[in-house]
DNA sequence: TTCTTGTCACCTAGGTGTTAATAT
DNA sequence: ATATTAACACCTAGGTGACAAGAA
């Protein structure tokens, strides 16, 4: 059996409609797909892998409010038509594969090397997805059968686990501002975009440090760092 | 068979008398011990590991020149007496162990997670060495015998490789200034101490950047970074 | 005196959302 | 109009030798 790690965080994202950025170079997922595994044969070899299947055959587009004179981006999705041609159905093997059951079970298994791309010609082995389409991550456990006619037993030698709360829409830029804010609040690498962090602010506060700029005041050129200019 | 990577660099260090820093928290080796492996059974499982054996039973001390009025640190070593009591003889398993021969052979095997410490009570699994003592790194390949009476064959199921050019003296601070300079010149993480780097200086040069301070002018307190103060 | 320790500035390496410019 | 790209400031995480202070 398999237990999804950080389920509470996944639920929070899922409630808003999770979005995952895809880039040409490949982008990690956040939250990272992580699981605890139980009930393996400690001595047997297993391969662990993930793939991503379309949730439907639709293409989405961002919703827009039409006010009296202005248009506002909404946080909901409209169906924009039929899905684009399917992407190459790649899989991502956990880089520790193959390994013994004991190895897999003794700690959380993290797919933090997995990257998503929208580049159909990607040759880095990343997972290729269509932007503006919805996907369901799947987790597969494959028992490495030592018998030499193991192909015959392929059907019974693997097991698939699906956590619906990990569904997401692939995007090249966030569509829902609340998703952006939740990513900023929960991903350590986005700490630079937090307007304040009540949690550990007094601890880390250095009196002379430059104040964090608000998201609105931020712009690229006018801000110069004295150490670099 | 096994081939030492970066042999030219190891030779250069060895000619000067390689020194490796040991710290309480654990310090990586530089150069890193890396090998290419040939002739494994691609389908069989192997464990790869390293250990460190004393080269002799001596303790060393730094040499000093006595000039007319002053004493200068030399770059040679004097025997200071008999070795201190032996440290716990730990081994470091390559973290990918066990893995198939095919996996090990398809790329360079790097022991960059291995750390050296002088803390006899270390509980991070690091290699414990006595400072001011000389050591010979050893590399071991263990075939994981599938037979259930595999203990009987332990003798024939492993092979040890020794590269004499990887010998070094464990130190808590560098004794030979030329070793320090070679480390600075060849370790990317020490780039901050290079006085100049003719190789790619024009490329990386930013006109407004603070100039690198020379080794002599450097001191801790008078230098303040405007971004942090 | 000689060796060890802890802290520091300065790096490498790479993961974030932002933004302006460019496609479509 | 909407979607994508590429450069960027700002982080996390952690590997360097220098240095001052401490220990033996």
Overview of the molecule:
Two copies of one chain form a homodimer. Helix content of chain A is 13%, strand content 32%. Chain A has four helices and 15 strands. In chain A, the strands form four sheets. In chain A, strands 2, 5, 8, 9, 13, 14 and 15 form a seven-stranded mixed sheet that branches. The relative contact order of chain A is 0.22. The C terminus of chain A is likely disordered. The interface between A and B is medium-sized, with 12 and 12 residues. Chain B binds a DNA duplex (24 and 24 nucleotides) through strand 3, strand 6 and helix 3. Chains A, B: It comes from Brachypteracias leptosomus. Chains A, B: This is TBX1 factor.
Number of helices of chain A: 4
Structural class of chain A comes to: mainly beta
Please write the string of helix (H) and strand (E) elements of chain A.
EHEEEEEEEEHEEEEEEHH
Strand content of chain A: 25-35%
Helix content, binned percent of chain A = 10-25%
Summed over residues and divided by their number, the pLDDT of chain A gives a mean of 85
The oligomeric state of the chains shown is homodimer
The count of strands of chain A amounts to 15
The gross shape of chain A turns out to be: globular
Identify the most extensive interface between protein chains.
Answer: A-B, 12 and 12 residues
Largest sheet of chain A: 7 strands, mixed
Give the N-terminus to C-terminus distance of chain A in angstroms. Answer: 55 Å
Keywords (chains A, B): Developmental protein, DNA-binding, Nucleus, Transcription, Transcription regulation
GO cellular component, one term (chains A, B): chromatin
Protein name (chains A, B): TBX1 factor
Subcellular location (chains A, B): Nucleus
